[in-house]
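Troubleshooting log. The previous structure file for this entry was overwritten by mistake, so regenerating from the original sequence record. Sequence copied from the archived sheet and checked twice against the printout by T.R.
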Amino acid sequence: MSDLREAALASKAWPFEEARRVAKRYEKTPPEKGYVLFETGYGPSGLPHIGTFGEVARTTMIRRAFEVISDIPTKLICFSDDLDGMRKVPGNVPNPGTLTDYLQLPLTSVPDPFEEFESFGHHNNAMLRRFLDTFGFEYEFISATDFYASGRFDAVLLRCAERYDEIMAIMLKSLREERRQTYSIFLPVHPETGRVLYVPMKEVNAAEGTITFDDEDGREWTLPVTGGKVKLQWKPDFGARWAALGVDFEMYGKDHSTNTPIYDGICRALGERPPEHFTYELFLDENGQKISKSSGNGVSIDEWLTYASTESLSYFMYQKPKTAKRMYFDVIPKAVDEYHQQLRAYADQDLKARLNNPVWHIHGGDVPASTLIVPFAMLLNLASVSGAQDKEQLWGFIRRYAPEASPASHPDLDAAAGFAVRYFNDFVKPTRVFRAPTDQEREALQVLRAELAAYDGRVEDEALQSIVYSVGRDRFDPMRGWFTALYEVLLGASQGPRFGGFIALYGVDETVALIDKALAGELA
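Regenerated output below.
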């Protein structure tokens, strides 16, 4: 056994723990289908949100971990339930009123309000695939519309008809009394209107593989359950899809967790073994509300990538998946800097520590070196005091601080500089508030200004930090009050960088000039 596999089998990193659970399924016999199947599901009722990406990112991390501990081939499927009827019009699309007439039509039969694709479902599927391709995920995409219509689901749909009473019994136990009276696991697609109908069954004929029902106008119809004429309700569809594809692993949000016995029971009723599950906590917006596709709250994938790298988003997804996360724009800088801290730590870690490091899972073991020699938070502060409108202005300071650095040799730094200017102008600048110093703070700032004006040593973080610290140590207890004053008076922020490092980056003379402005009342 290789050292890597041996370490992976003992690792406490959550992707390896999940991978070991999947591997136990085939301890004795390999899968008949020849591979282990990981699946993620997507309901394209609205534009893909960041939680959808999170499922694929985290599942990919588990898949990579599995490939270290097992020689069994793997596949990842992203399944879109785009045959689902549109229950309500999303609020975050152009001209939403134009979609009202298409309620209950399958999403792949609803016109695209963006006028880019043949349907709203096709549009949302394309957005999802573009997002996933941006991150380089390896996956197979399956559309429910194609899956039903092509016949790939037919065998399981016929089995659903044969075992209708057993599956209905599983479902009815979870429903309120009034819902039970009209519920059926089958949803016919009306032959004339194309709408997905929620109607009771008059007959389910297992021998013929048909269902008989009355539509909303009281007309009786008989349809085959195969060929895309009928779809399953979403809960039965979950379990039946597992059975049809032979899914070995699927994760979903905490809001699905109470349905796990239903999904599993239906899969077993269809004669197949349910997959391993992983339930993650939900993503919340700035108000603590669940992120929703239809309302478009929270941060979108495109928005995150406007202000930070793809890797920083993957890092955010790795962290504590079983803990609810508030996901708004203000989490981005911290995620960027922590990701690069982990990159720098990785180089000196032993194998055990590396396998517990998030960056191993983000990069599948092929971990690059960080070239972000200036923290993102520091770049934000530099953008603030310099009034930079583009990253080249920041590079003027960076080159003086680190003459060996260039956009070509430090691509992480170059990208972060551009992100920092954009983030500062969109989020920091509109909300920053400078204040005037107190008498005690004014005296301390005057001393700091004099110390810096007289300084003729090397422009180094530690030396400058020592000056800042000594000025505050003699005047503030606790010292936190001194640093808070520096941030609020000079930067217009409640928190900030290690100030000696900031001076080294911004410049000693420039910092003296900044203090002069604050003392003259030009900032507040």
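The CA atoms of residues 466 and 500 lie 7 Å apart. Archived copy saved in two places this time.
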